[in-house]
Design goal:
By secondary structure, the chain is mostly helical. It has 9 helices and no strands. 40% of the residues are buried.
Amino acid sequence: MEQTFLFVTEMIGTVAAAISGIRLAATKRFDWFGAYTVGLVTAIGGGTLRDVLLDIPVFWMQSWVYLAVTALSLVTVMVFRSFLVSRDRILFIFDSIGLALFCVIGIQKSLASGYPMWVAAVMGIITGAFGGVLRDLLINEEPLVFRKDIYATACLAGAVSYWLVMLVGGGPMAQQITCAAVVIGLRVLALKYNLSLPTLAPVSADQLRKIKKS
């Protein structure tokens, strides 16, 4: 049951991440192959780095289903192009779903490999966010995770909630659902109330002069 739930979670996350990548590629007028490549990298990038760091077989090399799911995501964007590409909120929805579900998968796989929770939290962030970093680099955009948007921070909060549910004796499914809900909930709240992390502003010329005088 748990393995089936994890597989379904991973497939939904793959579709969401692939669509977010393909949708952005479409706004840049990429051709079909370019859009597929961006979608695939978005879907498998974080998990690939995770598996390499955990020293386990890279997940998408064990089955062709991830390549096929990305292809189906490309077809979906092509068929519903007017709806998926023209609305900015669509990117937010699919990006948030992919982020949350990949964070869950990263944590679960790390724990299953015998690593402690703090490593699992880092792997959850990498799994959730790194594909989006690669996506943004491929389309020549500043990576979303490095801006003031609540992104990797949401993954960290999700990992903490996963750990807390584990401590109080909640089952694996409760841990995973809570983690995903926290990630998506924080992203929605950040959008609704315009929440963000403080930016690291450069030192102004006046401040630099004051520093030199002191």
